[in-house]
Design goal:
With about 210 residues, this protein is an all-alpha fold. It has seven helices and no strands. The termini are close together.
Length: about 210
């Protein structure tokens, strides 16, 4: 097994523990079982949910356009089995860590105010901090094969954060808005799966059995 896939597996085990501790795993099972009952839900609720999912999915796809210009495949060929495996597994398990950080932020802010605007922004801020740390300290170094393009020595260096960062922040905010409005873990996971499908395909994530990175 490629080292980075082993690291991903360990990370997912930890995230699964977080999902169980915070009750997200049981909620996902309950939400999946209750899917057939959606036809009994008010039409306004169904339309609002699907519209929110569609808008957030569009934001997710748009955010990956500038990201595609910042990454490379390093000679690797895309593998749809590897892409599907990563998208589904990481889309499920890492979502638990994202939601835990968001809900912790909401709970902390709830000690000072009940205003939903400030509650959401506190959760968004803590989730953004977690997102930044886990990508900088884990994904870039240990979780994924080399994929960030090296700057062209003949061009002036860009100052400030990467150009795709704003899109990713908007993407994360849209996911959390859907979760905060509908309190549905599975909807959040679905959006995360869309993003991870794009990522795995753009960097040509190899299969776990491949040792070359």
């Amino acid at each position: 097994m490629a080292p980075f896939w082993r690291n991903i597996f360990i990370y997912h085990v930890i995230c699964a523990g977080v999902g169980w501790r915070f009750g997200y795993l049981p909620r996902v099972f309950k939400e999946i079982v209750s899917l057939p009952m959606l036809k009994a839900a008010p039409l306004k609720t169904l339309f609002g949910g699907f519209a929110a999912m569609g808008f957030s999915a569009a934001v997710t796809l748009a955010a990956n356009v500038p990201y595609s210009k910042a990454v490379e495949r390093g000679g690797r060929k895309p593998s749809w089995p590897a892409t599907a495996l990563f998208a589904l597994s990481n889309g499920v398990f890492e979502s638990f860590a994202f939601l835990a950080s968001f809900d912790c932020g909401v709970q902390l802010m709830s000690k000072f105010t009940s205003n939903r605007y400030w509650l959401f922004n506190a959760g968004l801020m803590l989730c953004t901090v977690y997102n930044g740390f886990i990508h900088a300290l884990f994904w870039v170094r240990y979780g994924l094969p080399p994929h960030i393009k090296k700057p062209n020595a003949n061009l002036p260096k860009d100052r400030g954060p990467p150009k795709f960062l704003q899109g990713f922040l908007a993407m994360l905010a849209s996911w959390l808005l859907v979760y905060y409005r509908y309190e549905n873990v599975t909807m959040f996971i679905g959006l995360h799966v869309v993003a991870d499908t794009c990522l795995a395909h753009l960097i040509a994530l190899p299969q776990p059995t491949e040792t070359s990175q």
